[in-house]
Write a structure and sequence with these properties.
The protein is α+β, with helices and mostly antiparallel strands. It has three helices and five strands. It has two domains: 1-78; 85-181, Ribosomal protein S6/Translation elongation factor EF1B (Alpha-Beta Plaits).
Amino acid sequence: MLQGRRGVYVLVGVAAAVAVLLILFLILPKRGQVSTANEDLDAAKAEQSTLETQLAALEQAEAAAPEARATIQQAQQQVPPTLDEPGMLRLIQQAGVRSAVVGSTLTVGTPTFDAGTGLSVIPVTIDAEGTYFSLTEFLYSLETLPRATKVLNVSLSPGGEEGVTTTVNTLQMQANVELFTSDASAGPGSVPGPTETAGG
C-alpha cells in the first residue's frame, strides 16, 4: 500500500518536474518571442504610418508642383537673375508709349546690393512730359510692369517750352524708381562688383 502511494508521489513529482521544464524551456521562450514579435509589429505599424504620411506629403507636393513652378517662373520674371538693362529700359519705354507720354528720358544709376533682401537694386530716373492723365497712367503702368518696379517719388512741374502756347496743358514729371535683380553683382560699377564669368 505504501509502495503504491510512493509510486503515485513519484509520478506526481516527475509530472511536476516535466511541467516546470516545459514552462522553462518551451513556454517562457515562446512568450519572449511573442513579446518581441509584438514589439516588431508595433514598430512596423509606426513605420508604416510614417511612410504613409510621407507618401501623402509627396503626393500633395506633386499635385502642387505645376502651381509652384508657375510661381517660381513669375518670381524670376519679376526679379530676373541678370540685370538685362536693354530689356528693362524697353519695358519702361513701352509703358510710356502706351500711356501717351512724350519725350521720356531714362537715366540708369549704379546697381547696389541690398544685404537685407539679397537683391541688387537698380535706380532709374525717368523724365517725361504729358497730360495729368497720361502721366498717371504711366505711373500705374510702371507699378504693374512684368518686372517688379518700385516708384519712390514723383515731382511735377508745368510742361511745354517757354513762350509756346499749347492747346493741351502738359506737365513735366520726374520720377525715381527702383528695379531689382537676384544677381548679387549686377554688372560693371555695381557694389560688390561685377560677377566674374567662369575662367574669366
